[in-house]
Specification:
With 192 residues, this protein is mainly β. It contains 2 helices and 13 strands; from the N terminus they run E-H-E-E-E-E-E-E-E-E-E-E-H-E-E.
Length: 192
């Protein structure tokens, strides 16, 4: 853990940071129940446990005032009509926000509150998205050719609540329709 102020570089366009403390690799097997077309999911998984996305974290103590940060890279691809995406989560400390800055690629960020408000924003290079406190969030790569690469920063004590999304799903899905990304209501979404 770094004990003094530090600097690092982010490649312009794409790639991992010059330093990181933790490399997370999320594969298809970690997304059980998250994709609408479960038959296609199971068929794909039986063939290969595809790498969907990677996270390069610069860890900090899990204390108020510290910022955990890093780079996420979502690879291109689809499960049925749905694009590759992150697991999505609320923060365990619900009243914490997060900042995303798109470095390359194209995508969408799916967000919702526990009270039922939902929002889906496009995400393109040079764009910053501020995820407000109390909003669950998932990032989707809507390109079938290029990685979606983005920087993130959030309070290091925020934690992750993946379980709520694993059980309920998100209210909105991003699917391909007529060759274009389209936002639809999730027919499998479960109200608490």
């Amino acid at each position: 853990m770094r004990e003094k102020p530090f600097a690092y570089s982010l490649p312009l366009g794409a790639g991992k940071p010059s330093v990181w403390d933790n490399h997370i690799m999320r594969r298809l097997s970690s997304m059980k129940g998250q994709y609408l077309d479960q038959m296609v999911y199971e068929t794909m998984l039986s063939s290969e446990d595809t790498l969907l996305y990677e996270v390069y974290e610069i860890k900090r103590p899990e204390a108020a005032g510290e910022l955990l940060q890093g780079i996420s890279i979502i690879h291109p691809g689809k499960v049925g009509d749905e694009y590759f995406m992150t697991k999505g989560h609320f923060h365990q400390v619900l009243d914490t926000g997060e900042v995303y800055y798109c470095l390359s690629g194209q995508g969408m960020i799916v967000m919702e509150t526990p009270e039922g408000e939902a929002e889906v924003l496009e995400f393109r290079p040079g764009q910053v998205v501020y995820v407000l406190p109390r909003w669950a969030h998932r990032t989707v790569n809507t390109s079938l050719a290029d990685d979606l690469v983005f920087y993130f920063a959030y309070p290091a004590n925020a934690g992750h609540d993946y379980g709520t999304i694993e059980q309920k799903g998100f209210r909105k899905l991003v699917v391909e329709r007529d060759g274009r990304p389209t936002v639809i209501d999730n027919p499998r979404w479960k109200q608490a």
